[in-house]
Design a protein that fits this description.
heterodimer, A: alpha+beta, six-stranded antiparallel β-barrel, about 40% helix, B: mainly alpha
Amino acid sequence: MPQFFLNKRLIILLVSIIILVALIGFSLRERENVTWPEQFLKDMTGWVQNTVSGPTQYIAGFFENVQDLQNTYTENKELKSRLDELAFLEAEVQMLQKDNDELREVIDKEGSLSAFDPVHAAVVGRNPDRWHELLTINKGSRDGVEPNMAVITSNGLIGKVKSSQTFTSTVQLLSSMDPTNRISAAVQVSGDKKNEKVFGLIEGYDEKRKLLLLTKIPYDAKIEKDQAVVTSGLGGVFPEGLPIGKVVEVTPAEYGLTQTAYIEPGADLYDIQHVMVAKISSMSPEIQKELQRSNEEEDN
Amino acid sequence: MRKVILPLLFILLFVFESTFVQMVPPKEFFGGERFLIPHFLMIAILFLTIYGSAKYGILYGVIFGLLFDIVYIEVIGIYLFLFPVIAYIVSQVMRVLQNNMVVTSLVVLFGVAVLESGSYGMNLIIGRTEMTFADFSFIRLIPTLIINLVFIILAVYPLKRHFEKFIESLSE
């Protein structure tokens, strides 16, 4: 028995397993942002990644351009047919925008949850082991990027900022399996009762079918295929109305108390080059008042 | 001079893995269905263990494992543990086996398989994946082994020469 404990290698192994468990526990707990040594290392590698990704992007872009040339003719045809629609849509949008402004003035409401300032960023790297779907982007807290902000592409929401450093930040994709990765979402139900919304949580990802799971939908809500899913803005961090995807299938949840919907993400979660970080520009006046009041109470 | 080249080579591979995932595999072929995970850094560490010295291999395993965890995964511990342990196992295995290029390549490929399965196991434990083992082996393990085998075949000779010269320069 004493010989067993004197075995140096065994002791090293045991100690390192203890350290390993401690470290994993340390990094799995919910934390606001990563610690400063981590931030420093991430910024340093971000800088290297930035310099490497420039030339590679150029080379990859060249091959892509050659491929694009082959499809130009058919694409051009299709785009031309859409052009007529576009002019009509533009006019409608302008009209609606004006209407919206006027109505807002009537009810005396300033700002809305859906307003945000986009911060444009390029993706410089991606987590090579794709268990944790994380991206590195080249904008950090210097440009106003902070943890938990929504990250979108032109096709819809792709994830949120997990941690931000001075010059780079890390984005966690919707497809990342993480119990803390939850987003409040709403299904836009069209039909007899217009503009009704059904709320749920985007939580989890079906890796095999490549679909997002929208859980905690009330059991009596009638959701159909192809209905649009958007962010609800209820969390206070994400702007309202960012498109997420479309409903593919609805099933009752485990205990039959709620429903779960499978959502096909609108944005491509694989091929991402450029993203926008949605910085909320205005808080709703009620929340601002609430915050002020609680601050005053703390002061007293 | 050689002392500077070695860390530079590893840093380059470290960054290249991320760029590889981001750019190289075209979506039409692999993106949707299969995961091709580059483990080029692990391959280089294992060749360093075999052709260089086991001590250096394990040391680089610890350093780059920690860096990998902090920069890419934000869960410290997974690769910090796997990289040096696999380097150690490979160094022990190579004591028994013959030291020719085909055998070493196969041993390194075996190391990559252990790494991929090990990271699958750890992520299963901490609840970051719900894949079954059958799904894992078809979607991830086999495509990963194929892409890494290609890299091993391309890299075995230059890495062997470089690491052997590195060790010679150390003993001088």
